[in-house]
C-alpha cells in the first residue's frame, strides 16, 4: 500500500534468468548476471543450493527508468550466450510519470491531458447542435412582442412630455 501512495521509483522483484552458463552459477557470477536488470540483493534457496538449474532466481531492485530487458547477451569463455529473463512480482508501471504503482493507461495525469486536448478540440469546432437549440428557443418564447410594447409605451410617454396635448388625448 505504501508503494502506491509514494512515488515509487524502485521496487524489488524476482528475476528468473534462463540459459545461465555454469561458469556464472555462483554468487559472484549471478550477481553479475542480475546486474543487467537492476541491483541484485539475494538469490532464492534453490538457486543458492544449485538444486534447480533450469533457471536462476535472484531478487533485484529495479528502477522505474530502466527498460527491463527480456533477454541480454553474456560473454562466456568460448562464446556469447543469450540469457532470457522473466520478472515475478513486477507492479504496474507508468511510463508517463516513470513510477511504479499505477499503469500508464490508468494514469490520472494522462487522463487530464486527454481531457484538456478534448476541451481544445471542442473550442476549435463548436458543436453545431447547440446553435440549433438556441434558435428553436427564440421562436418558442416569441420574445419580440413584450419589448416592442414597452418601447411603444415609453415612446408615447416621451412624446407626451414633449407635446402635452397629444398625451392628454390618449
Ligand atoms: Zn502516471
Describe the structure in your own words.
With about 170 residues, this protein is an alpha+beta fold. The chain has helices at about 1-5, 25-35, 45-50, 110-125, 130-140, 145-160, 165-170, and strands spanning about 10-20, 40-45, 55-65, 70-75, 80-90, 95, 100. The strands form two sheets. A five-stranded antiparallel sheet has the order 2-3-1-5-4. It has a two-stranded antiparallel ribbon with strand order 6-7. Strand 4 (about 70-75) and strand 5 form a beta hairpin. The longest helix is centred in the C-terminal third of the chain and has 18 residues, at about 145-160. It is elongated. Residues about 155-160 have low confidence and may be disordered. It binds zinc ion. Zinc ion binds next to loops.
Provide a short characterization of the protein structure:
This protein has seven helices and seven strands; from the N terminus they run H-E-H-E-H-E-E-E-E-E-H-H-H-H.
Distance between the termini: 84 Å
How many domain regions? Answer: 2
Helix-strand makeup class: alpha+beta
By DSSP (H or I, 4+ residues per run), the number of helices equals 7
Q: Indicate the percent of residues in helices.
A: 40-55%
β-sheet strand percentage? 15-25%
**Mean of the pLDDT scores?**
80
Q: If you compute it from the alpha carbons, what radius of gyration comes out, rounded to the nearest whole angstrom?
A: 38 Å
Major sheet: arrangement of strands: 2-3-1-5-4
Principal-axis shape = elongated
Attached small molecules: zinc ion
Q: Biggest β-sheet, characterized?
A: 5 strands, antiparallel
Write down the secondary-structure element order.
HEHEHEEEEEHHHH
Low-confidence stretches: 154-160
Please identify the oligomeric state. single chain
Secondary structure tally: strands: 7
